[in-house]
Structures are given as C-alpha cells and as structure tokens.
C-alpha cells in the first residue's frame, strides 16, 4: 500500500476528520454553467458534494474502490469509476471541467496534465484546490508538528503546484475560514493521514500521544475547537 492509495483503509476517519470546501472556492474553480464535470481523485466526495450543485452531470474517479463506496453511499446520483489521473477512463473531449481536491500532489504532473487535456473540451477548465491549516495560530502549528506534516503542505508552502504544457494560464486564489471540530474530529483527522495509515504501531502511538498533548493544552470550549484554514485554489485551461 502506497501513501497515495492508502486512504481507503481509513475512509471513515477521512470522511469525519477532513474538511469540506468553500462554495465560493468551488464556484471560482469551475466554468460558468458546466454541463459535465469530472471530480478526479474524488476520495469520499468532500469536493463532489459541492460540484453536484454546479453541474447536472458529475462523474467521480478515484483509484481506491473503498473511497468510492463511501462517496456513492452519500451521493448516489454521481457516476463513479476506478481510475487514475494518468489513465482516465473517459472519452476524449467529454467534460467541461476537471476538479481535483487535495490530490494533485499525488499525481505524475505531466502525464496527468496530458490526460486532463485529453478529456477536457476545448476551453475547458482544470481546477485544483487544497485546504491547508493556518499555522499562524500557535496551537495549529503544534498540531501540524504532532501530525508530522504532509505532502500537500510542503507543496503549497513551497513553490506551489504546476501543470504540464498541455494546459495554460495557471491562476491562484485563497479564502480564509474556520471549522468547528470536536476532539474526536481532530483525532480522526490525524488518523486519516497517509503517514499514519501506513505507519507501524510505534509511529501511530507516538502521533496519538502528540495529538493528545496538543488537545490537552487547549482551553475547554464545550468540547469544540475552531480550526482555521486557508483554502488555496488554482485553475488552468485547455487551449
């Protein structure tokens, strides 16, 4: 089991612990009145749940059948298929937009960009989005250290994403917001991360202890914490 395909082993924790997306960010990602949208690397459907409000026809593709089962249970109107960003099981020029939530950093960028351009109609849009915890808040920074960081955070805090030559005009926008979470939600978030899922018992136990130490240091807010996020969205187009 690789990091990129590990999440199905913790689909329940992923669904509970990971945040959804801003409707404003999704509206910015997608073209006006798209007919058909592909959610690529759809996971449990966190992004799909908003895409279906913007397009009458949505297909969700993910390499992990367990993740798609969770998605299908919540969004039965969405067509699903097992596939990868480098080999998308759709015809040429068959979608108006491809949306990718919290997943582009797992892909072979050049191969994925070529495949995305193939399935997009001329002028179609690729939208990329990540929710990144706002570590300017000291306790959030400590939580990030306890969970050992992630590939997504490294990408966004570094040079940012890129797209291959088949796509053009990469734009960037951000939104700041906060999510109310119980302590159990935070624990589920920690357990949903790839390093935790593939880690050995000793690694998991240490992460659990470190997360508990962060939670123990927070003031009691009736069992709920406000976790600040910055949503980073990017879009590019097929010429």
From TrEMBL:
Pfam families: Methyltransf_11. One of its GO terms (biological process) is methylation. The keyword Isomerase does not apply. InterPro entries: Diverse_substrate_MTase, Methyltransf_11, SAM-dependent_MTases_sf. The keyword Transferase applies. It comes from Demequina muriae. This is Class I SAM-dependent methyltransferase. The lineage of its organism: Bacteria, Bacillati, Actinomycetota, Actinomycetes, Micrococcales. Belongs to the methyltransferase superfamily. Residues 38-126 form the Methyltransferase type domain. Keywords: Methyltransferase, Transferase. One of its GO terms (molecular function) is methyltransferase activity.
